């Protein structure tokens, strides 16, 4: 089985059986994100302690790429700091744009490395990035609420 087939199967698995799907009870933060070009709509729910994401989930209706990317992000985000998720966003963006990543950066992507082919489909990059862009808006809101706007 080729590496491309493994990646395709991983994408399908996450889109058909998304991890962390559903609404958390009493989340600390929730945020909606949308991609009107594809019709993707997600709502993310977080339990955050200090600088660490303790629990994360999502709900919504989206295409297979967006659902898989959101599932992969949620699976990877638990236990990570706000700064680590910022780094993950930058790594993923670079990856989709065809940038070179080292072994450590690829490992940080986890299952999201399976979305490498999305970069060849410019119209679908927004589908894969929606969860990361939605996270970025929430992170800025959190930082602003803490009065630490210089670190946004």
Explain the overall architecture.
This protein has 152 residues and is α+β, with helices and mostly antiparallel strands. It has a single domain, classed as Sufe protein. Chain: A. 49% of the residues lie in helices and 18% in strands. The protein has a 3-stranded antiparallel beta sheet with strand order 1-2-3, covered by helices on one side. Helix 3 (82-96) packs antiparallel against helix 5. The radius of gyration is 15 Å and the shape is globular. The mean pLDDT is 90.
Count of helical segments? 5
Mean of the pLDDT scores?
Answer: 90
Helix content: 40-55%
The CATH class name reads: Alpha Beta
Topology:
Elements: H1 3-16, E1 29-35, E2 40-49, E3 52-61, H2 64-77, H3 82-96, H4 103-109, H5 122-145
Antiparallel strand pairs: 1-2, 2-3
Helix pairs in contact: 1-2, 2-5, 3-5
List keywords for this structure.
5 helices, three-stranded antiparallel beta sheet, 18% strand, Sufe protein. Chain: A, alpha+beta, globular, 152 residues
Task: Provide a quick synopsis of the model.
The chain contains five helices and three strands. With 152 residues, the chain is of the alpha+beta class.
